[in-house]
Design brief:
Helices cover about 80% and strands about 0% of the residues. By secondary structure, it is mainly alpha-helical. It starts with 5 loop residues before the first helix and ends with a helix.
């Protein structure tokens, strides 16, 4: 395995920027659960013709895709709960920021990859920096216990599907396949569960008609967001065939920093001293990972 090189670091950071881009799209919307559902559905629509062109993944990787899809259902349920009980600005940094720490803890027993002391320093640094950047008002978090419970549960779920997909894409490549085929089939099959959950919830509340009207207005932006989501995860999974899964997972979650920067630039959100300090901690973590 080649390990983390500066070009690979730059590529994963690009993937993090793409991930932040579609999340900024959701954050800027008036209906976050519906926009999230629409982005995932349009991601499947974008991925389907690409899958027909690229071909199906190897049979040996299909059990990993099936397991990942099952775990993703839990992810969507926890995501909906987190957004129901707390703001995206509170729950998103917790979900994304603490998952790499859990991936690192699981890497040795599940993947045979024990992070070095330098890698641990980088992973912890990125986790702490992400928390500093994302949680602009950490004292308020204690007043949203249900949101915190869902967010931390989802951090664990994200860690589980990250390890599954990291292992699955390596099996795909080891048997002569391509990482792109794995990610495309995953996106095609994963594009329905969460939108269906949102649609059913709206119908139960008598608001089913607003889903189609909203989709007509936002489908173009959602397709762009879905494409960014595909690109982001495709980069991450391919990188996991070149470098340790825990290191790639930690680098990918710098998306929280990019989301904050996009919020400052596009939405006029305050950046502030805490986020500036958190940015410095994240940069130090990235450097530590590269030098590990």
């Amino acid at each position: 395995m080649a390990g983390l090189t500066w070009p690979l670091v730059a590529l994963v950071l690009l993937g993090a920027l793409l991930h932040a881009g579609w999340n900024a799209l959701v954050k800027s919307s008036g209906d976050k659960p519906l926009d999230t559902a629409l982005v995932h559905f349009m991601g499947a629509v974008v991925a389907l013709p690409l899958l027909l062109w690229a071909g199906l993944p190897q049979p040996q990787s299909l059990p990993f895709i099936a397991a990942s899809l099952a775990v993703h259902i839990g992810y969507y349920v926890a995501l909906a709960g987190a957004y129901q009980h707390g703001d995206l600005g509170l729950t998103y940094p917790i979900m994304r920021g603490f998952a790499p720490l859990l991936v690192a803890l699981a890497s040795a027993p599940l993947l045979g990859e024990a992070p070095s002391a330098g890698a641990w320093a980088g992973i912890v640094g990125i986790t702490v920096g992400v928390a500093m950047v994302g949680l602009a008002h950490p004292g308020q978090a204690l007043h949203h216990r249900k949101a915190l419970a869902f967010a931390f549960a989802n951090a664990a779920i994200i860690a589980v599907y990250t390890v599954l997909d990291g292992r699955g894409v390596r099996v795909e490549v080891a048997h002569g396949g391509e990482a792109l085929r794995y990610i495309l089939l995953l996106f095609v099959l994963d594009g329905l569960p969460y939108p269906l959950l949102v649609l059913l919830a709206r119908r139960r509340s008598g608001r089913g008609g607003e889903v189609l009207a909203y989709a007509r207005r936002r489908w173009g932006l959602a397709a762009l967001g879905g494409s960014a989501s595909i690109g982001s995860y495709a980069i991450a999974l391919w990188a996991m065939t070149q470098a340790p899964v825990a290191s790639v997972a930690a680098l990918r979650e710098t998306s929280v920093l990019f989301a904050a920067l996009l919020g400052w630039w596009l939405l006029g959100e305050r950046f502030g001293l805490q986020r500036t300090a958190g940015t410095a901690v994240i940069v130090g973590g990235v450097v530590a990972l590269r030098l590990a």
